[in-house]
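Look over this entry.
=====
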Amino acid sequence: MVQSRIWHCLTVAALFAAVTISLPVKASGPIDAEAVLAEAAEECASIDDGRFERDEGAVLSVDLGSDSGNDVIIDFSKLHCTSAASFWCGSGGCSLVVLTSGKRYDFLARAFKTVEWFDREILLLSLHGSACGGAGAEPCFAAYFWHNGELRQASVNDR
């Protein structure tokens, strides 16, 4: 338990040392999990009548501290289309949709995790190196938290 908390603190601290990263895209698409999944199924079917499949854990209920308290993360790495093996994923990662307080945020992430730190739930993302100004294989991370009605990127003045 203590080791886990220390690891989380070190992970978040390391993120604060990262270079500036672009903000998530605020999308105008559906803001309901079932509607997002229906849209994905439609996209899949549009390619050679693909069959849409969803693994367990594709839709996660989280509490990022938003006004609604019913936040959802849709992990497209757990969605599959039989006619397009890499439909939602590529070398830059997979699509990730965060639905919170009537807003939708779209990311492209290699991996993600939520951690609780100082009574806040923080969304940690592993990104393609180009998001930090480097090459694709270089490490790049971002941290996001809910504040004043928006999902905000953690930032630090490194001077």
Remarks:
- The radius of gyration is 16 Å.
- Residues 1-23 have pLDDT under 50 and may be disordered.
